[in-house]
Amino acid sequence: MAIDAKMVAQLRELTGAGMMDAKNALLETDGNLEKAAEELRKKGAAKAAKKSERVTGEGRVHAYLHSNNKLGAMVEVLCETDFVARNEAFIAMCHDLAMHVSAADPLYLSRADVPAEVVEKEKTRHQESDDLKGKPAEVLEKIIEGKLNKWYSEVVLLEQPFIKDEDLTVEDYLKSKIASLGENMKINRFARFHIA
Questions:
Q1: What is this structure's pTM?
Q2: Labelling 23: which of 68, 118, 119, 164 has CA 20 to 30 A away?
Q3: pLDDT in tens, the chain (196 residues)
Q4: What are the residue boundaries of the structural domains of the chain, listed by start?
Q5: CATH number belonging to the domain at 5-51, selected among 3.90.1200.10, 3.40.640.10, 1.10.8.10, 2.30.30.40
């Protein structure tokens, strides 16, 4: 199948990939836009993993304020160089992350940040629920693990579905930006403010 510039542009808009990466992904998938996007996501995750050990000594604190002036968030996102910290794509990513924090109200950055006693309390709550009474121990354990994973996806920022693309988690979104900007980046901390 012939790959034209319009298809490449569509894929670039969809994924933020470079022109040659988008063209190659389309060639590999015979022009299938969805498969090409998935292929680029996989490659982006691999690139992000390679960069994850690099030092992030620069970055940006970015604030988002909702139009009603009663809801807002701040995020601290770190990167490797001040060049990327001043890049429009990086600033847009920080804005999207702050907007996500405002909308999704995460409590923790990662699973590692969730206190063990909070996890135990959540686990106990599920173990004592009426709908799980009488289940075999091995089945009960898998059900509770599934419920805990769902709970993590609600309270842990990196595991929440990203508000602008629910097919991605916030961590997947961040990895895609690491791949497209070519530097290691990480969300260091965040805060959400809300006047009820």
A1: 0.72
A2: 164
A3: 677 778 777 777 766 666 677 788 888 888 888 888 777 776 765 555 555 566 778 999 999 999 999 999 999 999 988 899 999 999 999 999 999 999 999 999 999 999 999 999 998 888 877 777 777 778 788 888 898 999 999 999 999 999 999 999 999 999 989 888 888 899 999 999 999 8
A4: 5-51, 58-109+156-194, 115-155
A5: 1.10.8.10
Which residues have a Cβ under 8 Å from the Cβ of 33 and sit 6 or more positions away?
7, 10, 11, 14, 26
Q: How many Cα atoms within 13 Å fall on the side-chain side of residue 23?
A: 8
Instruction: Look up residue 13 and give its two tokens.
Output: 């808009």
At position 132, the amino acid (one-letter code) is L
Query: Hunting for tokens 């059900």 — which residue is that?
Result: 143
